[in-house]
């Protein structure tokens, strides 16, 4: 090949690229879809890759770009392209209300696909009539009287957690030591949800098993998968080390759930009334979700074993990761704000004195300041910082038309840190949730549990669990930070986590 022919080939390729770019430029300025979405403000984007280059990098960078940089630059609604897919992040309460309150926009977005191999078409992911029928079936599992029956579990597991933290404290010379509370709380939340969902004790706080390790690890594996888009290809995934590990974890997770389902089915077959004492499992007067599902399954006619497994796995995931995030961030903000921790402690002293008795449903209404602290934690550190819906039919929100096929992303962290609604948003101030302060605030300005027909089904469970676990911890321990501890690096890892742990100095009261 002569130098001349190389030059000609280069010119031809360059010309083709220029023509392709011009063709693309004309297309995005004339096609009805692009003309419509380009009315929404947003960063410039490239052919094929869209805005991917700007969001590539660590998970902390991703969160920062979506929830802080672009949300501040463009406001309550903006438009980006992930590859060629149009993605519309929103954080304005008025716009979120339109979408979340509608029965038409209940289908989830593209990011949930990584969860399908684990959770199948469980309540979190399913859509349309399947979702409607399951939601109706599962709602009674969160009835007040059933939640009440789990108070004992919340207390029991909180006491075990206190024992473990107390032992760690004692291992330090002055009874006061630094520890990452996140893994400790994860195991406590796992024990709680396992008993509530499956009626089974796994003793995650005191023992270890392949199942416990697998539930702990699967969230990390799915997050790692998100970060490597080439692993969306099932062949590449199945050949990769991560894909192999994921398959092994899924085998363990599904195997365990199936075993519990079969065992519980056998027990229930022997009983006429599943709500009476259950000596075989040691769980009295409780109706775990699994019993409700088995009862409704009509021997497989209404729900197959796999349907039941999907729902149980969904509750195992949604019910432990989210509350762990909330409980850990709560302890962090307490440590950072000693005056507020002291005020919460005084409220607990007034209710419980120095007694070590359990926290009961009767105590809960008296723990108002604690509740405001929990709500303020979920404002600053929402466990689910973002979620999605797919637009199936063209949708008008505010002055913008969102064409079918787009994904709407709800930026909960950005919404909760909007200075126009929450002045000094980075200041932890539980008084924002005092009764007088809430009056007049837009009902969709604060939505940690989402809102509308597809809101969190476990909201009341989570709030009750948190109040019991946190009151038990605060009554017994004081939480502080070291002046040289690095501040947490926040990132969306299925839930809002700190990439460098939640390291606190803990001592007995
Ligand atoms: C602090 C604790 C929690 C927070 C902040 C939280 C938040 C949320 C949010 C924002 C959603 C909507 C997600 C989306 O649309 O993609 C959701 C859905 C859901 N949550 Fe929670 N959650 C918490 C605890 C729980 C617990 C303890 C359970 C179970 C016991 C649970 C079960 C579910 C389920 C099954 C869904 C799907 C509901 C549906 O689509 O119909 N969550 N949660």
UniProtKB/TrEMBL annotation:
Assigned keywords, A-Z: Endoplasmic reticulum, Heme, Iron, Membrane, Metal-binding, Monooxygenase, Oxidoreductase, Transmembrane, Transmembrane helix
Residues annotated to bind heme: 456
Cofactor(s) the protein requires to work: heme
GO molecular function terms noted in the UniProt entry: heme binding; iron ion binding; monooxygenase activity; oxidoreductase activity, acting on paired donors, with incorporation or reduction of molecular oxygen
Pfam families: p450
Compartments reported by the entry: Endoplasmic reticulum membrane
Residue ranges crossing the lipid bilayer per the database entry: 7-27
Signal peptide (from-to): none
GO cellular component, one term: endoplasmic reticulum membrane
Cross-referenced InterPro entries: Cyt_P450, Cyt_P450_CS, Cyt_P450_E_grp-I, Cyt_P450_sf, Cytochrome_P450_Monoox
Family membership: Belongs to the cytochrome P450 family.
Protein's UniProt name: Cytochrome P450
């Amino acid at each position: 090949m002569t130098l001349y022919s190389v030059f000609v080939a280069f010119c031809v390729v360059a010309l083709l690229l220029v023509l392709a770019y011009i063709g693309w430029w004309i297309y995005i300025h004339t096609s009805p879809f692009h003309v419509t979405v380009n009315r929404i403000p947003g960063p410039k984007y490239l052919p094929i890759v869209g805005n991917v280059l700007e969001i590539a990098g660590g998970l902390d960078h991703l969160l920062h770009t979506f929830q802080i940089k672009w949300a501040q630059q463009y406001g309550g609604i903006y438009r980006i392209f992930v590859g060629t897919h149009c993605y519309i992040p929103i954080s304005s309460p008025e716009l979120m209300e339109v979408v979340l309150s509608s029965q038409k926009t209940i289908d989830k977005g593209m990011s949930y696909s990584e969860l399908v191999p684990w959770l199948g078409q469980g309540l979190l992911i399913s859509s349309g009539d399947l979702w409607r029928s399951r939601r109706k079936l599962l709602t009674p599992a969160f009835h007040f009287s059933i939640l009440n029956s789990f108070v004992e579990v919340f207390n029991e597991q909180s006491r075990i957690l206190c024992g473990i933290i107390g032992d760690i404290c004692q291992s330090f010379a002055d009874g006061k030591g630094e520890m990452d509370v996140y893994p400790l709380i994860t195991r406590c939340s796992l024990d709680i949800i396992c008993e509530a969902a499956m009626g089974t004790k796994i003793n995650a706080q005191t023992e270890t098993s392949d199942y416990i390790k697998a539930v702990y690890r699967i969230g990390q594996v799915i997050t790692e998968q998100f970060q490597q888009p080439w692993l969306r290809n099932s062949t590449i995934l199945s050949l990769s080390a991560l894909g192999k590990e994921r398959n092994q974890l899924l085998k363990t997770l599904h195997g365990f759930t199936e075993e519990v389902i079969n065992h519980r089915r056998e027990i229930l077959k022997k009983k006429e009334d599943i709500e009476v004492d259950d000596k075989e499992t040691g769980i009295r007067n409780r109706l775990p979700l699994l019993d409700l599902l088995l009862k409704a399954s009509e021997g497989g006619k209404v729900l197959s074993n796999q349907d039941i497994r999907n729902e149980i796995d969904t509750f195992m995931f949604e019910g432990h990761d989210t509350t762990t995030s909330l409980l850990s961030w709560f302890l962090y903000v307490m440590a950072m704000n000693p005056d507020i921790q002291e005020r919460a402690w005084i409220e607990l002293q007034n209710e419980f004195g120095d007694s070590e008795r359990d926290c009961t449903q009767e105590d809960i209404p008296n723990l108002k300041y604690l509740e405001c602290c929990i709500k303020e934690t979920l404002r600053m550190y929402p466990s689910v910082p973002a979620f999605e819906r797919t637009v199936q039919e063209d949708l008008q929100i505010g002055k913008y038309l969102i064409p079918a096929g787009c994904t709407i992303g709800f930026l909960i962290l950005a919404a909760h840190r909007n200075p126009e609604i929450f002045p000094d948003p980075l200041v932890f101030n539980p008084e924002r949730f005092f009764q007088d302060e809430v009056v007049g605030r837009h009902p969709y300005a604060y939505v940690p549990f989402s809102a509308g027909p597809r809101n969190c089904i476990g909201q009341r469970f989570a709030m009750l669990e948190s109040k019991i676990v946190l009151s038990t911890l605060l009554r017994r321990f004081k939480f502080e930070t070291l002046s040289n501890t690095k501040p947490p690096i926040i990132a969306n890892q299925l839930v809002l986590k700190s990439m460098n742990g939640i390291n606190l100095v803990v001592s007995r009261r």
